[in-house]
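Honest question from a wet-lab person: if I give you the sequences of every part of a complex, can you actually get the arrangement of the whole thing, not just the pieces? Trying it with mine:
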Amino acid sequence: MFLQTQEIIKDFGKLRAVNNVSLEIRKGDVHAIIGPNGAGKSTYFNLITGYHRVDSGKVLFKGEDITGLPSYRRCKIGITRSFQRTSIYPKLSVYEGVLMGLLSHRGVTLNPFSSAKKFFKEEVWHILEDVGLADQANTLGDSISHGDKKRLELAITLGAEPELLLLDEPTCGMSPEETDSTMVLIKKLSEERGITILFTEHDMGVVFGIAKRISVLHQGTLIADGKPEEVRSSEEVQKVYLGGVK
Amino acid sequence: MTQNPLEKERSLLKRGWWLILLIIASMIAPFILTEFYLTILCEALVMSLFALSFNLLFGYMGQLSFGQAAFYGLGGYAVAMFVTKVNFNFWLSLLAGPILAALIGLIVGFFCVRLRGIYFAILTLAFGQLIFVIIFKWHKFTGGDDGIQGVFPPAYLKSAMAYYYLILFVFLASAFILWRIINSPLGQTMKAMRENSERTEFLGIHIAKYQLITFVIAAAFSGLAGAIWVPFYRSVAPAYLTWIKSGEPVMAAILGGSSTFFGPILGMFIMTFFHAYVLGFTHFWPVIMGTLILIIIFLLPGGILGFAQEKLKERRNRQNQLTEE
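Yes, you can. This is the full assembly:
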């Protein structure tokens, strides 16, 4: 058991955003959460990463109850995320952004005297080469293209060396070519670095192209969970979701 | 394009040269300057240290402290009281300044780091004024509005020239330590919190804890600045803790450029020397200072050094593009 949510519930006022969702994410999977707008995907992400607290239910990571852990602690034990609206460091260089993740995860951020730039050079360049940003290492975060910013955020999260990486719409706003290369990249990261990936996505082509497992949320409730073909053939899913798209 | 390491080395050396020249100049300054201007130079150095410590919060951590003078003043009061009331060893009294400031900084910071932006600024202002009022009203213990007089350094430090070298040493050592801090992993974390605290938290950083650490470091160096100044001036007064005093490093950082390490120093030097000069013929100093700040904000966004750095970067980029073409 890698990540498990047990009957988790989250209310915003009278709206039940996540309703009793019990789900298991298996180690090494590329797992997609899909559902129409407002289905509760982002809220579900926020509950796993500690951005919001659950109202009831439990979140377990590697057998440990992490329901009450603050988000920075969850990151320390291996859960990192990206955000839907790209979240990077505008006035730090691409290199420094990735370095930040490594400094934090390897626990040297309290060091007040050594030069930060001397740390983890090899690891930073390795990540930058993996995501294809090595030639922009010295550029400031806000002066690269939108697609590159998305990839920078991915690189920054990789710096934190996650075991479980949650990507909230990783290809949002990308051109078809950028989307394709990003999906190839995500697959590669999962395979080469052994990172378990949980992601949300609007583009069904992307989802069915890469996900090993798919879970479908509808109005906060989990209505299907399984392999892509199982989900595709589920009647309920077709009714509430895929039917509307096709 | 990745930077050629050799080229980087060379630019570092180039950068180092003006610094070495400035340090040599500061070493021989007492032999050239009149005593009046030597006093002003002492004040400029002390206030520059104060501004540097303030800028750790403002420029690097991204939060505006409007009560920093409380720590400057506490440092001054600590040394004054130890020297005059208990006749304590001078050097240990000096040390008491930053220690007291850091301790109070720990308490004040504990509350302030829970807030951001304008709320952080207002709360630091409130705490600053609170500490000021305590010192101002507690006549029996602190001397109230009379302050404390007769804070003498040891005999061998009584001449302005000797004390100048002490100030210079403390300033250079502190600036070096602060420089190391901002380039360290801890400093990198400060910058990351400034740029995007949410992103940083989701990389595993406990934001409040790191902001508190920064707050305490800033308070300690502000306290050190106050502690080193008071024996030179021979007295301390509650005015050292007021919000007006807190405003000085804010102006210096804006004037010189808060995004650069040396900006606040340049800003404070301009302010201090300009102040001394202007007071020679008018008392309307705040009007002139205000006008200067306005001009800088409108004509040189980012402050003097911030603006210069931006221009240099643009020029270098243009040159890079030309060579690539």
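Two things worth pointing out. Residues 1-32 of chain B form one domain. The interface with chain A takes residues 1-3, 180-181, 183-189, 191-192, 195-196, 198-207, 210, 213, 217 of chain B (CB under 8 Å).
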